[in-house]
């Protein structure tokens, strides 16, 4: 179920990414989209947490310890950074390059776990990370981009894409620490509260929020807040709690795969041989991780 939840989150993010790009093309500010998503998620999830606390006394004592406030702050800043840096990157780079750089995040997660936290990373997981990264590169059309000679990239765009990769990996690692303590809903409420506060400070210096005051754009931004934020983030952190950071990172590479399939089905865009090979690599990586997870699961005792 944890694997399915993370996979569903990736599919929803893929579907909403295309919609977010249409809003940006219509003049929406990437920063204000990120700001609106954070506050919509904070209000909705916060209201849900309060509702549960008033109706169920057991929920009031769900917290299983405390974590350092810096972990909560890091989680919230990672949410803000992952959204804003990615939207800013696709405005300066070919989308293929931005996606490939962002999805180095699973490798960063595995590298952190192995070198800093000294966790053992199985050969299967390491192999799956490599296969997933190669698959994302092929799905994004990177071979065509290199062959065409149009790989003269914006330095600012590369930096923004790298920032999105580090923020995404931070989101996974911080989330893994927080969810066992606070649960999915309260973890996300805290994270989006930090992200929303950051954006209010930034917006105060920027001035008038034109996107959020535009009657033609605001309904789309609000819809994006629910479909691209509340639901998939809940699914992701719920699944993260059950399958761990490294596996969740690999499963998240289903997002570019889903985006390619949506483009083929909805927009009638053709998938070439490289992209089909990339899809096969991503699916193989997910299958390897899932098979290892099932093999490691305890066998239930027989019924007497």
Detail the topology: elements first, then pairings.
Blueprint: H1 2-25, H2 30-55, H3 69-90, H4 95-102, H5 105-115, H6 123-139, H7 142-148, H8 155-206, H9 218-243, H10 245-251, H11 254-265, H12 273-296
Helix pairs in contact: 1-9, 1-11, 2-3, 2-8, 2-9, 3-8, 4-6, 4-8, 5-8, 5-10, 6-12, 8-9, 9-10
Short précis:
The chain has helices at residues 2-25, 30-55, 69-90, 95-102, 105-115, 123-139, 142-148, 155-206, 218-243, 245-251, 254-265, 273-296. With 304 residues, the protein is mainly α. It has one domain (2-122, 149-244).
Characterization of the model:
The chain has helices at residues 2-25, 30-55, 69-90, 95-102, 105-115, 123-139, 142-148, 155-206, 218-243, 245-251, 254-265, 273-296. It is built from twelve helices and no strands. Helices cover 78% and strands 0% of the residues. It has one domain. 48% of the residues are buried. Residues 294-304 have low confidence and may be disordered. The chain is globular, with a radius of gyration of 19 Å. The protein is mainly α and 304 residues long.
């Amino acid at each position: 179920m944890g694997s399915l939840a993370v996979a569903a989150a990736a599919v929803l993010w893929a579907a909403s990414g295309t919609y977010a790009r249409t809003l940006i093309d219509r003049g929406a500010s990437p920063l204000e989209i990120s700001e609106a998503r954070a506050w919509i998620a904070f209000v909705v999830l916060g209201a849900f947490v309060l509702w549960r606390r008033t109706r169920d006394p057991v929920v009031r004592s769900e917290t299983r310890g405390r974590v350092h406030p810096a972990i909560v702050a890091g989680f919230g800043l990672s949410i803000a950074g992952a959204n804003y840096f990615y939207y800013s990157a696709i405005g300066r780079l070919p989308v293929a390059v931005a996606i490939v750089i962002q999805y180095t995040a699973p490798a960063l997660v595995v590298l952190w776990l192995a070198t800093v936290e000294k966790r053992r990373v199985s050969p299967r997981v390491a192999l799956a990370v490599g296969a997933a990264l190669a698959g994302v590169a092929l799905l994004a059309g990177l071979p065509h981009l290199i062959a065409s000679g149009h790989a003269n990239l914006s330095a600012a765009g590369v930096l923004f894409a790298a920032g999105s990769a580090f923020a995404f990996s931070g989101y996974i690692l911080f989330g893994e620490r927080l969810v066992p303590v606070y649960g999915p809903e309260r973890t996300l409420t805290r994270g989006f509260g930090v992200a929303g506060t950051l954006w209010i400070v930034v917006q105060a210096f920027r001035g008038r929020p034109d996107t959020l005051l535009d009657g033609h754009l605001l309904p789309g931004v609000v819809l994006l807040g629910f479909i691209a934020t509340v639901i998939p983030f809940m699914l992701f952190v719920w699944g993260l709690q059950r399958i761990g950071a490294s596996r969740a990172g690999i499963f998240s590479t289903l997002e570019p795969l889903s985006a390619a399939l949506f483009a083929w089905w909805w927009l009638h865009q053709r998938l070439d041989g490289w992209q089909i090979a990339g899809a096969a690599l991503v699916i193989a990586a997910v299958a390897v991780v899932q098979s290892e997870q099932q093999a490691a699961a305890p066998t239930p005792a027989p019924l007497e």
